[in-house]
Amino acid sequence: MSLTLLAVAAIAGIVVWKMMDSGFGLKWLMEHFQQRSITEVFRESVRRIASTNGDVLELATLESEETVTKFDSKTLFDVVYLGTTESEIRAMVVFRYHLKLSDDWSLNVKDGRCVVVAPGIRPSLPPAIRTETMEKKSAAGWLRFNAAENLSELEKGLTALLEKRAATPGKIKSVREAARLSVAKFVRAWVLKEQQDLEQGGIREIVVLFPDEPGAEDGSAALKQPATLQLEVKAD
Known about the structure:
- The protein has helices spanning 2-22, 24-53, 147-156, 158-166, 169-192, 196-200, 219-222; strands at 56-76, 80-100, 106-110, 113-117, 122-139, 205-209, 229-230.
- The protein is α+β, with helices and mostly antiparallel strands.
- The protein has one domain (2-230).
- Strand 1 and strand 2 (80-100) form a beta hairpin.
- Helix 1 (2-22) crosses helix 2 and helix 2 (24-53) crosses helix 5 (169-192).
- It starts with a helix and ends in a 6-residue tail after the last strand.
């Protein structure tokens, strides 16, 4: 029995030695070590940043002209139309977007690509209204006398309305590519900078996805996404 165990151990040792000697085993170990290293280094970096500089990574800004309108219609006994008061405010608004470092991240390295699934993009509230660009107007209906009152109510609710707009899919889509690049640069700065051997190990590009995008949950699909940031790999 002991001779059999020794023979099995000897054969296993020869197989492992042959795999390592051929380079296949070494490549396998390097790939798995690289995967483990980049994930651990990233998590340590995120924990350190979140504990010292807060839990927010600023991603992008969007400046756009916004128009908000408030209509106030009235009838007498639901029969006689008394007119509609219309108030409008127009201004340039700066929307800022960020992600939370403490939210879930996913990193995978394969065939020279570092695929990052970052936390979702969040609006930074409240948006900044450029008051020097603000234009206001208000007109009362033919039997209405509340133009100033209607405009005042619109101004009071202006910030809340803009906060809702900041979170709309259209606004998020407008900053998505800028946010993607910001995340890629963050990963490069806080992972590859501290783990230089990873660059030497062959990471050539970083791919960034957000949770609501195709491929974020499917690792194989994510590997087919275009690169967000190309890296300069040092020559041997």
